[in-house]
Design goal:
Its cofactor is Mn(2+). Keywords: Amino-acid biosynthesis, Branched-chain amino acid biosynthesis, Cytoplasm, Leucine biosynthesis, Manganese, Metal-binding, Transferase. It is built from 16 helices and 18 strands. The chain is of the alpha/beta class. It has three domains: 275 residues, Aldolase class I (TIM Barrel); 83 residues, no CATH class; 111 residues, 2-Layer Sandwich (Double Stranded RNA Binding Domain). The strands form five sheets. Strands 2-3-4-5-6-7-8-9 form an eight-stranded parallel β-barrel, surrounded by nine helices. A three-stranded antiparallel sheet has the order 13-14-15. A three-stranded antiparallel sheet has the order 16-17-18. The longest helix is centred in the last third of the chain and has 18 residues. The two termini are 34 Å apart. 47% of the residues are buried.
Length: 514
Amino acid sequence: MKKDQLIIFDTTLRDGEQSPGASMTKDEKIRVARQLERMRVDVIEAGFAAASPGDFDSINSIAQVIRESTVCSLARANENDIRRAGEAIAPAPRKRVHTFIATSPIHMEKKLRMTPDQVVEQAVKAIGWAREYTDDVEFSAEDAGRSDIDFLCRVFEAVIKAGATTLNVPDTVGYNVPGQYAETIRQLIERVPGSDKVVWSVHCHNDLGLAVANSLAAVMAGARQVECTVNGLGERAGNASLEEVVMAVRTRADIFPVETRIDATQIVPASKLISQITGYPVQPNKAIVGANAFAHESGIHQDGVLKHRETYEIMRAEDVGWSQNKLVLGKHSGRNAFKSRLAELGVVLESEEALNSAFAKFKELADKKHEIFDEDLQALLSDEAVTPETEHYKLTYSQVTSETGEVPLARLTLSVGGEEKKAESTGSGPVDATFKAIESVLNSGSELLLYSVNNITSGTDAQGDVTVRLAKGGRVVNGSGADTDIVIASVKAYLNALNRLHNEPAKLNPQEGV
């Protein structure tokens, strides 16, 4: 019996980017979109076109380069948002407008200040506007998990008649539990006229740790699209984890009546790329993509695995891409080999100047680190991408001393808007001293929320990947830096975050959590 296709709708670039400080540059978003397409994701929600001119430009650029996956933009159920979304996705061969309006009593009364009749009317209008740009229109009933089932049936019936092709039932605040959520999906499919003419979709948040469980329960009840993110990235506790949904369906093919198009060998490369770009590290015990996901510490487990893998492993590490970090380049590799490997990773540098700059940095890294892996290249390119073309703050010299029994001392020379400034400070450690030295000159007024160090590959010559999260004036940004010297990587990350605070305009975040 042929199985139904489960559509994988990835919202890493939209909902995932709403994680505090996880904003990405346009070039980074394009790299992620290319990786998602390589993974054969069905729908890429590239952003929220009305949020800012930068978001519109990123979505439009993604729409120009993605050929196989559907490119989607989110929009509130108003004419301006939908027209911005339609214009942004216009270049894509496959395109979708995803519009939403809240349907729960508390949202309609307190947020929208609209009656149920007005909500239905606005939803129908929104579908009409969206269909001027594409026949592929998705409608979401925001906070469906706390909405009245009779009203949901009414609004879904109305938008089907208006031409919506995908109906999304989001658990916006992660309030549902699997049995309850599955029953909601089951009732909607049974009760809504025309339900057999549309794809039913779910978008679950992980506030109670149930996003994947709720999504899979909904699939068993008839949903045929799951909205998810790589690494479960997303605001608050995150979203349903793409890798867990995909591998659950694949591993338990005996239970699930669906299959996906996903190339699972691209899961780990996608996870590592997104972790590096956003600065959100993956916990070691994270299912599928955690460093320990296929490690066996127990002697009993080790013995069993050696005798027969399936005694303790239900999946093979190589099936999800854990064997993908093979040695690719070294210090004697040429420019063409470097360019070819970037192309294989889906990275297209726009100019010869950009290629030359990246190759020069690669050669510098190769002098410090004998073996260069894909992860090193991704980190190098992330470092390139997060460095503004004209850095307001830039490190030009660093001397840090740390010895037993002595207080660490940092001496730095910074370029601030082209003007050279010297800084010096002591600290409880070399990193603390460098950060204090920077602030002694810049007095940024920002608050350090997070300092995180992760090794990119194994070995004592591995690059350290540092994330710094700063907050100022209600804005939160992440800065990233990579180097074989942890202190230098830390300075890069701190200055990168300060440059983002200085350069990036605040953007509208009109979406409260479909």
